[in-house]
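In response to a reviewer's request, we include the raw inputs and outputs for one of the modeled complexes. The two entities were modeled together in a single run.
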Amino acid sequence: MDFNDSYYMNLALTEARKGEGKVNPNPLVGAVVVKNNKILGIGYHEVYGSHHAEVNALNMSKNSEGATIYVTLEPCSHQGKTPPCVDRIIQEKIKKCVIGTLDPNPLVSGNGVKKLQEAGIEVIVGILEEEALKLNEVFFKYIKNKNPYIFLKCGITLDGKIATRDFSSKWITNSLAREKVQYYRNKFMGIFVGTNTVLKDNPSLTCTLENKRDPFRITIDKNLEIPIDYKIIANNFDEKTIFIIENSKINSEKYNLLKNKYKIKFISLDEKDFSLEKIFKKVGEFGIDSILVEGGSSIISQIFENNLYDSGEFFIAPKILGDEKSIPFINGFSKSKIDEAFKLNNVKFNLYGDNIGLEFSK
Amino acid sequence: MDFNDSYYMNLALTEARKGEGKVNPNPLVGAVVVKNNKILGIGYHEVYGSHHAEVNALNMSKNSEGATIYVTLEPCSHQGKTPPCVDRIIQEKIKKCVIGTLDPNPLVSGNGVKKLQEAGIEVIVGILEEEALKLNEVFFKYIKNKNPYIFLKCGITLDGKIATRDFSSKWITNSLAREKVQYYRNKFMGIFVGTNTVLKDNPSLTCTLENKRDPFRITIDKNLEIPIDYKIIANNFDEKTIFIIENSKINSEKYNLLKNKYKIKFISLDEKDFSLEKIFKKVGEFGIDSILVEGGSSIISQIFENNLYDSGEFFIAPKILGDEKSIPFINGFSKSKIDEAFKLNNVKFNLYGDNIGLEFSK
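The model returned the following structure tokens for the whole complex.
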């Protein structure tokens, strides 16, 4: 095996992923310190607000003078919640810095590289850059204009249904597929479903993984119709349920009850602004960098109509309902030519026993 | 590499597959003659009515005295279109005969083994038996009671549609998936579509592969409605188009025209017997051992309702119509619980670029 730059960068990328769900809206970052082909230190950005990956890797390293540091994202050069990482790298007398990709944050981009070079450190940028960009696609989108990254998840039958005619949908997909959904619930900062899904399913929208981080539970409740004994209200112990409401409902009796007793958070819009695009924008401004959209039909249809998704995964079960009254995952269009069909791009398949996952992106 | 019995049997199985589409309703058979770990001869049953695999392999072998013959199916012991293979094996002074699986044909089963053993030849049965059974699932089903093997093929969008609202369906799946369909058209002896599919699509139902063997084109034309300029009538140069008609249509003017001028073949039933089950039975009695069913909606729905399929493959394209007026691959049921859904078994996935094939069997 050739222990080259790609090898160590790949290690740093793998390390970085351990921070999934814990660092939003910060980026995922991993770092490895290497001297004479020996790893002196390795680390990642573990929790929002704590040490950056470079610092964790350097803290672990003994005698790192003359070493090479591999870091998936350009080290920061500005004072944030923690001191600039470039200062620490310079201080440790690192000889060479290998970077996956530049930081898209205008506060940092290129400055880190410049400061390192000025200190006489050799800098290489762009090793496994594609993987490094993919790792932080959420961060890279959100930093631009606070628009959250939208990931679509849908569990469907072979005939494209998400529920039977009586709206029962437990369980279309198998346990392996449902476990992957839990992975997404941990990875993305918010989970979003439509009003109907809450009213029909009374879901808890939490993450059942070990060492989980529950997402913010976001739904539209324009007119405050969701009963207070529903799980997302009654079980809001972590105060992470957010309702999108109509402006005129502010300070209504139910609003005050939900706010004060159940600690529900609110994002409000004018009636005329109730489009998903504006709702997502507001959720982004609230500080949520990524949204896992779990349906239902109406929400998914609006997302495709307005081209609002960044990526997603359809989980297909080998089941068939064959019932025109069952609930399709998408509806409301009148495509008369196959060429007019919505076409999913960058398709990739994942196997989950007898279920298949179809991953796609814009 | 260990050149054991499984190795040579696997070679014989691979060889056998070369006969696909050419030997129906005979079984696919492959044979390898081996002495001192050296292959003396290898062959397969190439064309219906010609030499069996054992004979082809032995004809190629020089000095096969004391050799082992591997054959995927029990050698025949009765006089058919060709002399019994066991006689030839005995005559060649073969020492050992390794067999994939016994012949289910009551005329042969066990007799071949017995005759070989009586001649002092060592016989081993059951090497890669599962693969040998799978290889000839068509033959094994058909030999029992002349019921043809039913294979279902369907190209669908992610929302389970086979055509847009105006019935246009070119092309839902990609070229790789469509090439696999051509493979099936060569493999199975007949291709079957419903009247609507013929009337809407005017398909040719031929096989476009090189060295192809076109399947029998079978459709229901109860009341002889298909126009004579349609491809399956006008292009019936090989005289392999079969219409399922109502008994009373026999000797009608159009019947005589189709029969005499266009060489259409007919299978006729009483009005009351127009079920797919009876139609398939009649097709089997006609001598067709296997049917590739290519739709449309009404035929597929009847097949699931009556549990008539043996296996199949759904080709799923990453396209979405989202149109309730587009044509679903199956319809007419009223499942109100997920547990009532048709569940496909023995699922296996095949990748065709951005299309996925979901193989299943009963």
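As requested, we also summarize the result in words. Chain A is about 30% helix and 25% strand. The CA atoms of residues 99 and 125 of chain A lie 5 Å apart.
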